[in-house]
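ok trying this again, last paste got cut off
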Amino acid sequence: MRVLLIVQPERFDFYSFLAAGKDIEWVLLWYEKPSQMVLSPVDLPLDFSSVRYWNEFTTPQMLLDTIKPDRIIFYEIIDLRQIALNVTALKNKVPTFFMEHGAAGDKDAAAERIEVSKFDKSKLIYLLTRFRSSFSDIIRSKVFYYSALSGLGSLNSFVKYSFLPLKMLKGYPNKTLSQNIFEERIPLRSIVFNKANFEEYALYSGASTENAVFGGVPFFDKYYNNSTAEKDYIIYNEACYLEEGLAGWTKEHHKEVAQALFDFAEKNKITLYVKLHPRSNPVLWESYEFNKDYVTILHSGDFTDLYLQSKLILSYSSSMLNGCLCARKNIVLLGWHPVPHIFGADFSDYGLCHVSLSPTELLTNFDYWVNNNLSYLNEGAYNAFLDRFNTPFDGKASERILERIKNC
């Protein structure tokens, strides 16, 4: 079976679990042209038979005729060419899948992101630069997109599809997509892992539960039966609120939070790992003054064992937090925003983690947090959490997903 995988190749954490698949030929597609591909294919977690580029193909039909995929997996379906390929693949009866890449979906937080999103100067600069330097690529992408019009099955779909490129120029992608839902945009199956993810995905895709695939979060299979010995350090799991303009974060607030952490670690002689989000700016963190005897800044890599061996995790709502709660790690859910609140899935509703709304609570509550792991105190709440965010949690989610892809 040949599977075309449309995924950002650098995000090993998204797709490395697929390596467990047997008798599958993987083909990679993400970038427009070879010059954009930084990594060597031999360094990727999947053994790809080939790496293809959008600019090789004039139309989605040409792409299908050339690659001849038996399945297509989209890790996002926001780009216009991705949408055109899905439309054409469904017309050709090639099964398509959307593959979720997170585990802590929150419909309300997603709605807030959509509501506050707006056209900004950086997008205008990008569009002007692309227009000047890559005009031929723009024309090529639009030819690719509009060649798929014959795959639309209704006048409503035809109109929405036709005007979508213009609307995408004006607005934030997910906001635009949430306002322009039509059947042919949705892959045949949506592998969303859990109920919370589906609710968020449905907000901008219009997908129905009949087409959704649940069955657990594959990234957290390795968290099952965790028997890792605990070590004497803590982790601050950072989020990219500043970089994405969310929750009112400013550079001043960012520095205040960082300084509070650094001061606490040094004063109490505690080893602190600051794990940055992939989209966070490591240069900003390294520009701050901190004692490297106690503080280490981490950005890229697989830090599963680091999380599992930690004695305490300080984290904003995130997918990683989901996995660590499944593994019953000791967690403090953070709301350290300029206006203190929990942004995203509020895991504290289940009583399985502590909550902190200010870095000053490190000084008053740290000893209590470290000595009281709430995830072990209420078995009923733990099972309710799993039911919404990761069920069944048995270390076999990857197997189930691969089987569903094969037997669609």
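PB: full thing came through this time. The first strand starts at residue 2 and ends at 6.
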